[in-house]
Amino acid sequence: MKLGQRSSANLMAWPGQEGAKYAKLVLWLIALTTIWRIWAAAMVGFGIGEAYYLASARSLHLSYFDQPPLFLWILWGINAITPGEAPVLLRLPFILMFSLSTWVIFQIGARVQSARAGWLAALLFNISLLFQVSIGGWAQPEAPLMLFWLLTVWFLLDLFGEEPNAPLVSWGLVGLMLGLTFLSKYHAVFLLYGAGLYALIVPSARKWIVHPGPYIAIAIAALIASPVLIWNWQNDFISFNFQGGRAFGDEISLVRLVRMIVGQLIYITPWIALPALTAAIIAVIKGPGSFWPSSKGRGVAFFFVMLAHGPIILFTAVAAWSETQFHFHWQAPGYMMLFLLLAMWMDASWARFKTALTVFLVAATIVNFAAMSILVTHTANGWLRQIVPGFEEGIDPTRDALPWTALGEFLRDEDALKEGKFIAGVHWTECGHVDNAAAGQVPFLCISSDPRNIAFNVDPTTLQDQTGYIATSVWPDEAIMGRFTPFFENFEQVGEVEIQRAGRTELAPVRIYRGEKLIIDREFGPSTTGKFQVPLLPLTRISRIMGQVDELAAPLEVDAYVNGERIGAANIVDGAFDMTTGMVATLPLRTVTLELKSPDGKPLFAKSVKVYLGYHQ
């Protein structure tokens, strides 16, 4: 690859006379799509993911359970300085980041081929269904991921496409952007993989394998991403284990694989995704020595494929043996690279197929934005129910974006949002909406077997004896009563509310329960078996055990076991013992069996036992 003069300093520069026309078109594109996304952001409430992310961002941490921290830091900061938790204000930084990404992808296209190729890449980037709203407009990790991914690519082109005067400086800039990409999402690993694979395959790039520059870049990236590493080290690498665990399964399922293939094509937009994949296949066949389609340097298209194929192939293949649910956006950074490749192909074919390509782009733009505008307006008021036969009885995923405003009103009327009380949900998919209804006015717990980020925000042991309100729309009443009655001195349902859209009830009623005097530490009376059932809230553990035994019949020592695993021991002195345990907290809500035994393994006959719980930190 030889692209000419090193141009890192020209990222924000205005192109020359030939490219000015396309630069103006890109600015118009940025302006119009930004306005459209701000409108969409004002129309639609938070869905499950965004509501959960806002709940996660109420506390500032070095990193978080299922995502690196950058976008949550941004969300925390914006929430701290803007009033009312309005979705449009909280989404605005992410909209602006995507707008900046549009300019960067234009500059990359103009750099490697032509200003028209850059304009086409920017247009494809904005009309893909997934990128239009979800990536381009919502408060999620993808907006900073795309921005810093593209900036990393820009600086990699300095090294793989040109002859930099100061290669260590160039690699330093790569490391800076790569580190910020890692802070955005773990997908950054595919940049390392793709660039490394390119360096191994392409002879002109192999010099970098023995050059200190790439290793300096990796060191800089690791330093910038160190909050992620430190937090995971402090928390037993729970985030890495969670994300890595998604790649494992126990059986092959062609149904899941087909669902992933079809789902990603729909999300990306079939009439964009399929030509982009075709362009990638051609680029691989042409090889790294080709100027195809008409790039300024050898192997540019091959370079983009090296960066693109990792997330596309891996996350598609994983669906064959692991339940990836509906995460069709995981391949998005790879397709973003293919947008550049497809734009280059279209630009090279422009003279022969100008009319057909123009019609295609205009039609795709109109259809895609019309479709997403229909989706946005329906999400706001449900109007499609009036004109689409059978839609009323079907599943409407837009219901997930309805704010639980009625729950907030109920909690205020109950005086539940006052000091000395707390609010809780029962699963991460609901916890975000429940938390958003409370708007951070009181502590919030996600009392669930899968609380994720939210479990790290509040130490539940500090809420002992407080009154809590628990809300759910999906768990049956008998399950809620059975699970939560042991945690309170008194627990009962106190009401329910309906979540409505345009005056129409859309979801199952949200039932609200009140628990008086949360029980954290536990006292048990006489036991001949030495066994005790101890309910544990998320991220809590048995930290201390005290007890009284029959002084005459007592052994010299008592050992404590939880679910068969030894957690501590203490001497018995004058019929009493007091031990600090080495028990490790785990994330889910659970009930454990505590056993007290003598050193020979026999049950300890206890007169009384008191169990103290501690938070995982």
From TrEMBL:
Transmembrane segments: 25-52, 88-106, 118-139, 190-208, 215-233, 265-287, 299-322, 328-345, 357-376
GO cellular component: plasma membrane
InterPro entries reported in the protein's UniProt record: LipidA_mod_glycosyltrf_83, RgtA/B/C-like
Cell location: Cell membrane
Entry keywords, A to Z: Cell membrane, Glycosyltransferase, Membrane, Transferase, Transmembrane, Transmembrane helix
One record GO biological process: lipopolysaccharide biosynthetic process
Record-level Gene Ontology MF annotations: pentosyltransferase activity
Primary site of residence: membrane
All copies of domain Glycosyltransferase RgtA/B/C/D-like, residue ranges: 66-231
Topology of the protein relative to the lipid bilayer: Multi-pass membrane protein
Protein name from the UniProt record: Dolichyl-phosphate-mannose-protein mannosyltransferase
Biological source species: Maritalea mobilis
